[in-house]
Amino acid sequence: MHVHRSAHVRNFTVLPNALLQYRRLSYTARGILADLLSRPDGWREDGRHMADSSPQGRGAVRKALKELTDAGFYRVEKVRLPDGTIRTDSHVYDTPQLGLPGTTRPGPGGANAGGAGVPVVKNRSQRPSLPDGPVAGGADEDRAACALPDEQVREAVAVLFRVIRPEPRLRLGEAEARELAPQVAQWLERGATREDLAAALLPGLPLRIHSAVAVLRHRLEHKVPPAQTPARAAPARYDECAECRDPIPRPGVCRRCAGHPVPAVVVGADEACTRSGAARARTALRAAKPTACTAPGGRPVAHYGSVGHPG
User: 282-306, pLDDT tens digit by residue?
Assistant: First the structure.
């Protein structure tokens, strides 16, 4: 058997292989389960509508739903509302939930079923029952934003708003932007510019965005640039003497400041040295004197001979 799969970009559902290959369920039950899992959250459809919109009859659909209920993939719950009416909620799972009850049957109620119309008096001396730890997904981000200086948080929020301004699908509130401020500040500390943030956050967005803050948080976490290593300064070619500040080849003091004799360079100190230099200069000038030469066309040209090789 050769399996051919297409690379889908949108409108697809990820299902575990164990569910699709669950041989204890009939093919009809597995097909109905896959169809229900592909629906969005809040979708309402009962077995009668499933049978009317498919080739299977009501009996086959009813039997398949019972198989899914017994296996823990499908559960129907009846809930009594405060006004006394009963609503049926269906729950579909991609993994079997055998520990959950199959059906919750409502008990008998009176006129004030569900506590409607009964005043609730708050006990001010009672301690709150909520845990002290973080209960919301953005609590950690709030603490991280509080750890940053206010000026840094304001700068990160302002930069984020400027970057996402051209994209109407990425609308954020002030609280959501403050949650993302630590990640934006990390980008700025690593030398990223607004153009870098725009190139990482704006391209390739889905057509429909349910949570802009979740999309931005994911991209800020997974596309953060690497930390910049400080550039090493080029080593100086020469050091300075610690005493007179003259250039020396290595750290320390120069020979003069260390007390060592320094050879003196004397140029033209006496008459003999001057006469010797002048004689060498005249010899070089005579050797470089131009000599007449005839070009192939009969035109005279000047030719300069080099020292030691007269032309």
Answer: 887 777 655 555 555 555 555 544 4
